[in-house]
Amino acid sequence: MLKQTLLSFILVSYMSLSAQTLRMTFTPSGVSDKVDSVKATNLRTNQHVTLPGNDTLYLAVNTGIDHISGLTGQGLIFPNPCQGKTTLVANVRSAQTVAVVVYDLAGRVAGRALAFVQPGSHAFAISLSRRGTYMVSLSTDIGKTGFKIICTECRNHPG
């Protein structure tokens, strides 16, 4: 048990250290001495946000899946990397409907599950049929959180 807890702590610490947030401010150039507003557009999803010119834009490197406060945060995928089968363990604070969706890197849904769960720790088995990198979205009634899975080989499927 201690070994598994230590491994979980190391994995969560590594994931936290590898994140990067970019802070951007804007200054005028040319004839203007003021930036009225800045429009930032996600070229993949075409979503955009407009900020006042004196505001700061923060860009976080992530999966595009927002973290939520309704999960106690420390979800864990193990083993990861995996060989076609892995488990998502998540702690949920209240009784609610939970959706787990697995996406490939092109954004296609590779699998999904929907379950009503009680408060506590829950394990979701994930089976992958092809090698590659996958994103997992864990959704509750109040939001989403995301994880990355690396599948190195699939024993039953040559992928």
Question: Can you give me a brief rundown of this structure?
Answer:
Helix content is 10%, strand content 46%. Strand 10 (132-140) and strand 11 form a beta hairpin. The strands form four sheets. It has a four-stranded antiparallel β-sheet, with no helix packed on it. The chain has a three-stranded antiparallel β-sheet with strand order 5-6-9, with no helix packed on it.
Please give a structural write-up.
The chain is mainly beta. It folds into two domains: 2-60, no CATH class; 76-151, Immunoglobulin-like. It is 10% helix and 46% strand. It contains one helix and eleven strands, in the order αβββββββββββ. The strands form four sheets. Strands 8-7-10-11 form a four-stranded antiparallel β-sheet, with no helix packed on it. The chain has a three-stranded antiparallel β-sheet with strand order 5-6-9, with no helix packed on it. The longest helix is centred in the N-terminal third of the chain and has 16 residues, at 2-17. The radius of gyration is 19 Å and the shape is elongated. The protein starts with a helix and ends in an 8-residue tail after the last strand. 13% of the residues are buried.
- What is the level-2 CATH architecture name of the largest domain? Sandwich
CATH class descriptor name of the largest domain: Mainly Beta
Order of helical and strand elements: HEEEEEEEEEEE
Side-by-side strand order of the widest sheet: 8-7-10-11
Helix content range: 10-25%
Average pLDDT for all residues: 75
Strand content: over 45%
